[in-house]
Amino acid sequence: MNTQVASTLDERAELKAFDRPDEIREFPKGRLELVKVGGAMIGRAVFQPGWRWSESVKPIARTASCEAPHFQYHVSGILMVRMDDGTELECRPGDVSLLPSGHDAWVVGDEPAVVVDFQGMVDYARGH
Fold it and tell me: What is the Cα–Cα distance from 14 to 36, expressed in whole angstroms?
């Protein structure tokens, strides 16, 4: 490896933690904690039992369905996703999901659903 490149990489090493997020956004029955690492915004969302995108975030987003694309790791709980084309996905702990724009989602059961999202959280639940 070129030593100049290695030096640049060393200078950019970062460590962030969700217990000290750069930003927090709260919405009905949910919370989003954001950390900025390497120029990317990574979000950990905690959706409480009874949370549903179309009820909790739609009034903030003002779109017919969730337009944020997601690439996420499911930490705990069960999150059901219905794409605008009718496709349904039941996301469980340990799953990794890639969701394009155009979907609704809701928590199934009595346990909060926690996801870490590597894409799509920059404007999520941010008022216009």
Answer: 9
